[in-house]
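stuck on this chain:
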Amino acid sequence: MSALPKLSKEQIQKVILSGMGFCLLIYIYFTFFLGPLNRSRTAMERRMADLQNKLRNSKTELRRASSLEVTAGDATSRYAAMEGLTPEGAPIAWFPPRIKTFFGEQKIDKAVVRLDRNADLKEPELSDWTRYSWLITLPEADFAAFGKAIAALENAEPLLWIERLTIHAQPDQLQFQQVDLVAANIVKKK
């Protein structure tokens, strides 16, 4: 085996200085170049993840907005159709004759229609609509004809609904019943 050559004091100093310079170079590389680069990369990855999340949320919001646009179009057309269902004039003038005629066509005569109460709707978007409550009395109604008439009434009058229904049997005429019902509808103010 050969022995390592003997280094002079000056050569040892150069080796130690070179080693220290190499260590200093590695320290400077990791501290001033690689460290900021890693921090920048980590920050960039976080920012990219945040932007991707915002992009996904934006796409979801776009889908919701387009869905809302379709729904708004449908609602607007339904609202316009509802406005067209309200005849001209005061409801007290046109509603009772309309209901009497309807029940007459259903073979239920002698319908009595009276206004119970009315009130403006509280929802801000429906502030120009009024809710009317009507008392309708049918003194002689056949049960089967009445059932068909109620179904036809709610289909013929989309802005009307039955709130309460009372049926009384008549002891002297068992084939007929006396029917009292409370119906409500909404009417656009003119």
In short: The radius of gyration is 43 Å. The chain has three helices and four strands.
